[in-house]
């Protein structure tokens, strides 16, 4: 591993066959005209050569850090395995592809209290956040407490007001499951959930519609 003071931009540029301006622009987050493939190569080489601490400092010193924070509620129902949950893991995978593929950086945090997101954003001078698994009143509390833009990923609101919510169509998802099971010849279907409200109710209602008849429901303790 090279020490920081020995790593020069010109060395990185020569190794990758790119200009020093390209390397410098990646370090300072000016990646609008740089392809995602080139940006990734430069970032990997910077990390390999031990330049990442300098790059992080440069990012934090800018008005635009190009960092997007992803904050997920660490609910007790995940039993300490929040990031291993299939829905959370697949969501993070897709968010990573979109965020990093567009020249931004993704940072992930588990939080018990949504206001931890405000401190997280301030600490890293974030340009925006994506929030998962909190409740409507928690999102509103954060909205009233910070100015940084954020998007709610698959939240449930009766009135979302000034909050941007990118939501999965749970009712249609349930409807597709019901149709699929009916096409396979099934007529007795059991829906298992820890509640019968909000998203789970939408999924159940959709399943009944897709099946063309009632679906049994079992509620289990959270």
Summarize the SSE layout with pairings.
Layout: H1 9-16, H2 20-27, H3 36-48, H4 52-61, E1 67-73, H5 86-101, E2 105-111, H6 116-123, E3 128-132, H7 136-145, E4 150-153, E5 164-166, H8 170-183, E6 190-193, H9 198-211, E7 216-219
Parallel strand pairs: 1-2, 1-3, 3-4, 4-5, 6-7
Helix pairs in contact: 1-2, 8-9
What does this structure look like?
This protein has helices at residues 9-16, 20-27, 36-48, 52-61, 86-101, 116-123, 136-145, 170-183, 198-211; strands at residues 67-73, 105-111, 128-132, 150-153, 164-166, 190-193, 216-219. The chain is built from nine helices and seven strands. The termini are far apart. A five-stranded parallel sheet has the order 2-1-3-4-5, with helices on both faces. A two-stranded parallel ribbon has the order 6-7. It is elongated. By secondary structure, the protein is an alpha/beta fold. Mean pLDDT is 87; it is low at 1-5. α1 (9-16) crosses α2 and α8 packs parallel to α9. The protein has three domains: 4-61, Orthogonal Bundle (434 Repressor (Amino-terminal Domain)); 67-166, Rossmann fold (3-Layer(aba) Sandwich), CATH 3.40.50.2300; 170-219, Response regulator (Rossmann fold, 3-Layer(aba) Sandwich).
Notable characteristics:
disordered N terminus, 434 Repressor (Amino-terminal Domain), two-stranded parallel sheet, five-stranded parallel β-sheet, Rossmann fold, single chain, 222 residues, alpha/beta, 3 domains, 9 helices
- Looking across the biggest beta sheet, what order are the strands in? 2-1-3-4-5
Under CATH, the homologous superfamily of the largest domain reads Response regulator
Tell me the count of domains: 3
State the major sheet: 5 strands, parallel
């Amino acid at each position: 591993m090279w020490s920081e003071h020995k790593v020069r931009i010109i060395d990185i540029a020569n190794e990758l066959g790119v200009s020093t301006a390209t390397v410098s622009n990646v370090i300072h987050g000016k990646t609008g005209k740089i392809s995602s493939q080139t940006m990734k190569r430069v970032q990997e080489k910077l990390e390999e050569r031990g330049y990442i601490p300098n790059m992080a400092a440069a990012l934090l010193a800018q008005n635009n850090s190009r960092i997007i924070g992803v904050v997920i509620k660490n609910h007790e129902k995940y039993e300490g395995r929040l990031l291993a949950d299939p829905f959370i893991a697949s969501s993070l995978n897709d968010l990573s592809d979109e965020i990093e593929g567009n020249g931004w950086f993704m940072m992930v945090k588990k939080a018990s209290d949504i206001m931890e997101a405000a401190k997280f954003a301030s600490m890293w001078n974030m340009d925006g956040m994506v929030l998962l698994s909190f409740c409507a009143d928690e999102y509103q509390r954060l909205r009233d407490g910070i100015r940084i833009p954020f998007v709610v990923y698959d939240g449930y609101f009766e009135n979302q007001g000034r909050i941007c919510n990118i939501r999965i169509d749970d009712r249609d998802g349930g409807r597709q499951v019901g149709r699929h099971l009916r096409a396979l010849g099934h007529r007795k279907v059991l829906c298992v959930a820890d509640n019968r409200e909000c998203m789970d109710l939408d999924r159940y209602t959709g399943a009944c519609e897709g099946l063309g008849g009632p679906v049994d429901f079992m509620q289990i303790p959270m």
